[in-house]
Amino acid sequence: MRVLLAPMEGVLDSLVRELLTEVNDYDLCITEFLRVVDQLLPVKSFYRLCPELHHQSRTPSGTRVRVQLLGQYPEWLAENAARAVALGSWGVDLNCGCPSKLVNGSGGGATLLKDPELIYRGAKAMREAVPEHLPVTVKVRLGWDSGERRFEIADAVQQAGASELVVHGRTKEDGYKAERINWQAIGEIRQRLTIPGGRQR
Beta strands of the chain (E only): which ranges? Predict the structure, then answer.
């Protein structure tokens, strides 16, 4: 079993990643999201989000770090994914789970759960833009306001060629309510798919 340090916007920046990976044995850290709209972001944006890129995408204690992107336009997700790995990110992650009203209002994060085809196109474009030996991973929730489309969402990720799928076991509307976590649904998705299967080196 692997243990990943998941991102929390406004909380888990590079300093907190450094501190936590010094005292805990994490296999991987995921950055907070880098918002992609309609352009290839400048190199400085990647370094600001993930200064570990200056050090082979590792924290001072040696834990690998992966850049996370958030957006809705496959072509720009692909361009920025390619830049992230060119700068040293150990793969790239697509955020399809952020429930923030601000993020969702601009078409990113959990909004993509309404359109599994768009998730497929975004993940596929990123997969094609990133060298095959590096992981492309996707973070989702069970759905927007219900989990009825959870298998459709999961299938879209796998069919796009993603290396791994991370499932937050609540819908967007569930927010972060502890009593709404659906462990059974997570297990059902796990049994359905042949991923995760990301390569480790």
Answer: 4-5, 28-35, 64-70, 92-96, 136-141, 164-168
